[in-house]
């Protein structure tokens, strides 16, 4: 019995010390991690709205019923929405964080900058885990194609785009192309809610 109690005491002491060390490390790294995350968000916002000086985080977005259904059908989730402002505080548009669950390798998180007239300023991919040499080429192949396009929605094509609304698919990575295209379309739907005074603006 004494031996068991002794072993239990040793085990408890080890567990306690390990827990305290983990707590200490967590507290030590929490702030640097938070700062790095904020920096990554700021850089993503700046990448899609280079002429903006400030990005004001808006209240949590609640899509209208119709938009919510369309987003759900394409595996899209709208995250944080920011109002892009110039140095004087004048609104330039929105930056919308969008996640698609339909990437080949899992979730793809991107930021979409949309001007008040509906023009997609730029998009920036914050997180992606697609196949190297295929879907991972999204940043180089897909992102530039959305630059400064003013359309209601985008569609991808394998035969070469013939209009602003068409996006050339990555060869061998149709799933990634579709996911990114749907994500940008989801951002445009959320933008419409905001501009038209939908649920996201209440």
Layout: helices, strands, pairs:
Elements: H1 2-48, E1 54-57, H2 65-73, E2 76-85, E3 91-103, E4 106-115, E5 120-127, H3 138-141, E6 155-157, E7 166-168, H4 174-195
Descriptive report:
Strands 1-2-3-4-5 form a five-stranded antiparallel sheet, with helices on both faces. Strands 6-7 form a two-stranded parallel sheet. The protein has 202 residues and is an alpha+beta fold. The protein contains four helices and seven strands; from the N terminus they run H-E-H-E-E-E-E-H-E-E-H. The protein has helices spanning 2-48, 65-73, 138-141, 174-195; strands at residues 54-57, 76-85, 91-103, 106-115, 120-127, 155-157, 166-168.
What are its keywords?
7 strands; two-stranded parallel sheet; 202 residues; alpha+beta
Strand content: 25-35%
Distance between the termini: 66 Å
For the CA atoms, what is the radius of gyration? Answer: 22 Å
Which of globular, elongated, flat, extended, rod-shaped describes the shape?
Answer: elongated
Question: Residue-averaged pLDDT, rounded?
Answer: 89
Q: What is the tally of beta strands?
A: 7
The amount of helix comes to 40-55%
Element order: H for helix, E for strand: HEHEEEEHEEH
Structural class, from helix and strand content? Answer: alpha+beta
Placed side by side, the strands forming the largest sheet appear as 1-2-3-4-5
Largest sheet: number of strands, sense, barrel closure: 5 strands, antiparallel
> In DSSP terms, counting alpha (H) and pi (I) runs of 4 or more, how many helices?
4
Low-confidence parts: 198-202
């Amino acid at each position: 019995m004494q031996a068991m109690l002794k072993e239990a005491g040793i085990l408890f002491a080890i567990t306690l010390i390990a827990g305290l060390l983990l707590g200490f490390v967590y507290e030590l790294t929490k702030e640097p991690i938070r700062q790095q995350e904020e920096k990554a968000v700021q850089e993503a916002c700046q990448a899609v709205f280079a002429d903006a000086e400030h990005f004001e985080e808006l209240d949590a977005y609640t899509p209208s019923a119709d938009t919510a259904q369309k987003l759900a059908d394409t595996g899209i989730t709208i995250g944080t929405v920011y109002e892009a402002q110039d140095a004087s505080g004048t609104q330039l548009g929105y930056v919308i964080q969008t996640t698609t669950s339909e990437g080949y390798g899992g979730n793809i998180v991107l930021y979409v900058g949309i001007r008040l007239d509906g023009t997609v300023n730029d998009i920036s991919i914050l997180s992606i885990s697609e196949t190297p040499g295929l879907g991972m080429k999204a940043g180089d192949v897909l992102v530039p194609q959305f630059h400064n396009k003013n359309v209601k929605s985008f569609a991808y094509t394998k035969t070469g785009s013939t209009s602003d609304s068409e996006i050339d698919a990555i060869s061998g990575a149709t799933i990634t192309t579709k996911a990114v295209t749907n994500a940008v379309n989801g951002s445009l739907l959320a933008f419409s809610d905001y501009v038209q005074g939908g649920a996201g603006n209440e």
